[in-house]
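During the reporting period, our protein records have gained a structure token line. One record among many is quoted in full directly below:
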Amino acid sequence: MELETLRDLYIDELKDLYSAEKQLVKALPKMVRAASNPELKRAFSDHLDQTQGHVERLETIFADLDITGRGKKCVGMEGVIEEASEIIQDKPKPHVLDAGLISRGQHVEHYEMAGYGTVRTYAEQLGEAKHVRLLEQTLQEEKDADELLSELALSTINLQANTKTVDR
């Protein structure tokens, strides 16, 4: 696809986000299984449900634009998910793994917030009011997920990961 107009760029970015969300739908169950903290498991599980909603919202936008969301692979999200997989494969102690999963989860959220903020702005400039509402809803959910991960990290998980037990 040639990028000649803001609409072209908007569609390209939407497809990138669609790929990112589809990848995340596959990755989040692994993060749920890897987490040991029950609140963190629940946060990832709840965000999986939200992520499926994000996919549906993007599909609504694609239907409005009379296009398909397929055809693009989000290599940025692929890299962030690979980093999450690597920390799981490293098999650190459970509290350290939880802290690492929060870090990787926040990388995901920040990546998505940047993308959704951008496409929401494009939608505004293109006069796509319905899209603006859908994209803003998703953007707010991404911000809320990021905030929850910060709260979990600061209230318990990072503290637990910082506690070194001495084997005797």
Summary: The chain has a mean pLDDT of 94. Helices lie at 6-34, 38-65, 75-90, 94-125, 129-161.
